[in-house]
Each structure stands twice: as structure tokens, then as C-alpha cells.
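May I ask for a protein sequence together with how it folds?
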Amino acid sequence: MPRPSLRCAVRSALTALVPLALIGALTGPAHAAAHRTATAWPDPAPVVTHVDTTDPVVTIDDGWNHDPAARKLLLDRQVPASLFLLPGAYSYDPEYFHTLLDHGRSRVENHTVDHPDLTTLDAAGQKAEICGAGDQDLAEFGDSPLLMRPPYGRTTAPPGPPPVPAARRRW
């Protein structure tokens, strides 16, 4: 097996840091250490939103489309893919993603259970969405996610008044 390049090592290191960054960004200001309990959220960490690379990489968001041609391309060319899947999107055809995981360079990462705007949820709602999806991913694929992609790519609320909830969309 060829030795990983420096770029791969850096990407692996960033992969390990991003989940902490995203969870930290979702929790708001850190509490003083003296007031922490065993169930407290971790301190906020920097959010990584972009990694410069010239390597071929693919991100699959949500996972609703199970195109056999796309799977074949990823497998034939051994393109690394980060799969940010909704449990409902893989539940009707989990074998599609199992094939990518078993024969390709893909990894299932965390998304949410129902794709809400996390900035509109309280801490308990955020935890239910994020941890619930991670637990379902672990049960289905046997591996815990290292990264988390928030729906709509947002980790903080936009400036101004809170958004009015829109009708739920089904793609």
C-alpha cells in the first residue's frame, strides 16, 4: 500500500478536528470551568468550512439520489467520498451505500435526522438531531462519523430576527 502523502495526512488531521469545531460552534459561549458538569457541552472550537485541495474528492449531501452510474464512477476511479446522509435517505436502499463503503474510499459522516435549520433549535433539539443521526449511522454502517455537516451549511443564526419556519420540503 503506498505511503500517504502530506496532503492526505493534513486532510486526516482536519477530519479529526471538524466535528469538534462544528459541535463547539453550535453550543454558543463556553461556561466557566468551575461551573461545568459531566454533561456540559465542550468549549467552542474553530469551524472549518473549506480545505484547499487539488485531490479529487466528492461530498454527497443528504443521499436521496442513488444513481448506479455515480456509484460505479466512484468505485472505478476510487474517488474518496464523504457521505453526509440523512437516515431516511439511506433507509430505503442501504445497500447502495454499503457497496460504496465496502469497495470504495467512502466514509459515512454525520448530518441530522430530519434536516432542520439547527440555528432555530435549542441545545436539546440540536443534540437530538445530531446525535440521533450519528446513532442511526453507527447502527446501520458500524462506524461512528468523524465529521458533521449542518443542514444548509449553517452553524450560526444569520443576523436579524429569527426566520419564520417554512413548510417542510420533500425533495
Q: What stands out?
A: The chain has a mean pLDDT of 75. The helical segments are 6-27, 68-77, 87-91, 94-103, 123-141. Residues 6-27 form the longest helix (22 residues). The beta strands are 58-62, 81-85, 106-109.
